[in-house]
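Tutorial, part two.
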Amino acid sequence: MTKQEKAQYIDNLVQELTDSNVFYLADTSGLTVDVVNSLRRRCFQSNIKMRVVKNTLLVKAMDRVEGKNYGDLKTILAGATSIMFCEVSNAPAKLIQDFRKKNDKPILKGAYIHEATFVGDNQLDTLVSLKSREELIGEIIGLLQSPAKNVVSGLTGAGSKIAGILKTLGERN
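Running the prediction step on this input gives:
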């Protein structure tokens, strides 16, 4: 790779890192071509952009991104590394967990999710259990609607009782 190609590669990585608030780093070394192609296909189907990166160039790109702290992620960059970019914070974790039901890899090296870093494969279960932005918004809306529903049902219930009492009193006269 020439200096110009490396510079372009780093520029592209900087742009992707700047644009993305969620990415995972995984070890896919030792997987056969067929297995890697299967993983790539599943990533594509799940709206996850996956590609192999050069560790030293990724570190240089991380250093150039402003406003984001990647913590210990730079220290885990050794050996073969694939990076997975996604909009949904737990989608790559779910994909990795599901894919490992039939394969030993990919192994999670680390993840960056909205300014939080997770290091190590032992974090996979934690990442799987994270709720997506849409799930959190849905829960908040549900919680906000709950008191309003209680008030409406209380008024509706009380209104029908009052109407029943008035009807009964009216029939007596």
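The chain has two domains: 3-130, 132-173. In part three we will examine how such features are distributed along the chain.
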